[in-house]
């Protein structure tokens, strides 16, 4: 080896030694990876589409403002089409291949529950945007959620019925995960409000007419009101069939239809329908002292300006999931999964779009039934009742 080659070799060794001593590149150069699986297409697209739009918009905004801990956010997302098996596959990919720091999803109860064991096994914090109580009860150390539970929705509806002197009701619900869980919760808590469920009917996700079920409810002696627990097109069909049958009883829906899309699908048949919903649907009706008012107004204005379409309660669940994750990462001061998990569990008084979140080791939802606002459809729009 000549002298010049020897010098080059020594220089290379010196460079490698220096890099080895310096260790890996600074963490601040690496993005914080937010993984999401949503139902952006398929039968639950009315949930997943606004959720994905919200995540994309606010990841961009947060990065424009300097990121989190001085690091940019990187959103890795997949569309599960509402399929539980696809959700499981994509959650596995996000955790094993993409190595995300936080997992957000799914849009539905079924897609969420398909991914829960994977998040638990990977020991990665997961924040669901689905409603069923079974997602967080019993408590899974690694799983949280942003929507109010189906039990809270049932309690809010039943409390209003109680105020109106209603004691005997008909219940109709979807057989999907959301509807099934909502039915179970309603049956479980009805007695606490002095209400008896005297008719109990169900419909499938593909059903296009619920006239027979509603007829059986109408002909049941003593029915004073009807409560439908479902999401997607089913509740709109129930509402139209209800009007066609000219049933002269109060009709309640669950928070599964809390968006303008329900008004479009149900049309004039929705007049008088009551349901529990996020403050997001009536932001300007909130009193000025309500801590949620500036949050929901800001989200509504930003979303509608960016996407040129009406804001949706379901997008609000994604807003809360992302901002809770960011808040926890900032509180933890790192992306260590255990530290993020512990920070999520200790969040208190966090004002979101859906409500004011106060988590605890025994409560990974952090919301009260009062976070629901009771709305009624009047003249084709939403009106705040209380």
Automatic annotation (TrEMBL):
Residues 31-379 form the Leucine-binding protein domain. Residues 1-27 form the signal peptide. Transmembrane segments: none annotated. Keywords: Amino-acid transport, Signal, Transport. The keyword Zinc-finger does not apply. Pfam families: Peripla_BP_6. GO terms for biological process: amino acid transport. CDD domains: PBP1_ABC_RPA1789-like. Belongs to the leucine-binding protein family. This is Branched-chain amino acid transport system substrate-binding protein. It comes from Ectothiorhodospira marina.
């Amino acid at each position: 080896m000549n002298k010049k080659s020897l010098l080059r070799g020594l220089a290379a060794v010196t460079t490698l030694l220096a890099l080895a001593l310096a260790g890996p590149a600074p963490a601040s150069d690496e993005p914080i990876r937010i993984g999401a699986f949503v139902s952006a297409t398929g039968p639950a697209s009315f949930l997943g589409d606004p959720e994905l739009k919200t995540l994309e918009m606010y990841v961009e905004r947060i990065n424009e403002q300097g990121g989190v801990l001085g690091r940019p956010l990187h959103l890795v997302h997949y569309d599960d089409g509402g399929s539980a098996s696809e959700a499981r596959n994509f959650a596995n990919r996000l955790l094993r291949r993409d190595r995300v720091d936080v997992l957000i999803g799914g849009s539905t109860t079924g897609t969420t529950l398909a991914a829960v064991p994977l998040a638990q096994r990977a020991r990665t914090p997961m924040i669901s945007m689905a409603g069923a109580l079974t997602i967080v009860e019993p408590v899974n150390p690694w799983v949280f959620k942003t929507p109010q539970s189906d039990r809270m929705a049932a309690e809010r509806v039943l409390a209003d019925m109680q105020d109106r002197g209603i004691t005997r009701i008909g219940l109709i619900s979807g057989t999907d995960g959301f509807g099934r869980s909502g039915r179970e919760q309603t049956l479980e808590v009805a007695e606490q409000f002095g209400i008896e469920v005297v008719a109990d009917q169900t419909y499938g996700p593909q059903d296009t007419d619920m006239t027979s079920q509603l007829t059986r409810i109408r002909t049941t002696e003593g029915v004073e009101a009807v409560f439908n627990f479902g999401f997607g097109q089913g509740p709109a069909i129930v509402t139209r069939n209800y009007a066609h049958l000219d049933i002269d009883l109060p009709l309640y829906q669950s928070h599964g239809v809390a968006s303008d899309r329900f008004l479009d699908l149900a049309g004039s048949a929705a007049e008088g329908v009551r349901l529990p919903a996020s403050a997001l649907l009536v932001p300007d009706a909130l009193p000025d002292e309500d801590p949620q008012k500036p949050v929901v107004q800001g989200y509504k204005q930003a979303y509608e300006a960016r996407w040129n379409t009406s804001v949706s309660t379901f997008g609000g669940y994604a807003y809360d999931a992302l901002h809770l994750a960011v808040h926890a990462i900032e509180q933890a001061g790192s992306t260590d999964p255990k530290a993020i998990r512990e920070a999520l569990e200790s969040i208190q008084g966090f004002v979101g779009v859906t409500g004011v979140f106060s988590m605890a080791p025994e409560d990974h939802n952090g919301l009260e039934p009062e976070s629901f606002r009771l709305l009624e459809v009047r003249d084709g729009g939403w009106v705040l009742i209380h």
